């Protein structure tokens, strides 16, 4: 009976470890997606700033 209890406890510990590993992997994936979104947003904002600066230079050149 003691062997069965040890096996059951070992299986529960393995399941808990598997759940921790899976959650860690999901957290890492979520962080990577967040960084990718932030990089995309930064590129978009940079392009808009460059376009605004270009428009401002054109406006000044017309004066």
- Calculate the terminal CA-CA distance, rounded to whole Å: 93 Å
Q: pLDDT below 50 for ≥5 consecutive residues: which ranges?
A: none
Helix content: over 70%
Question: How many domains make up the 3D coordinates?
Answer: 1
Radius of gyration, in Å, reads: 27 Å
Description:
This protein is mainly alpha-helical. It has one domain. Helices cover 97% and strands 0% of the residues. It contains one helix and no strands. The chain has one helix at residues 2-62. The longest helix has 61 residues, at 2-62. The radius of gyration is 27 Å and the shape is rod-shaped. The termini are far apart. The model has no long low-confidence stretch (mean pLDDT 94).
Fold blueprint:
Elements: H1 2-62
Summarize the structure.
97% of the residues lie in helices and 0% in strands. It has 63 residues and is mostly helical.
List keywords for this structure.
63 residues, mainly alpha, rod-shaped
């Amino acid at each position: 009976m003691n062997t069965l209890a040890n096996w059951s406890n070992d299986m529960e510990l393995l399941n808990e470890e598997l759940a921790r590993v899976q959650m860690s992997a999901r957290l890492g994936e979520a962080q990577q997606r967040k960084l990718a979104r932030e990089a995309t947003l930064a590129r978009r904002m940079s392009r808009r700033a460059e376009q605004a600066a270009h428009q401002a230079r054109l406006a000044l050149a017309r004066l």
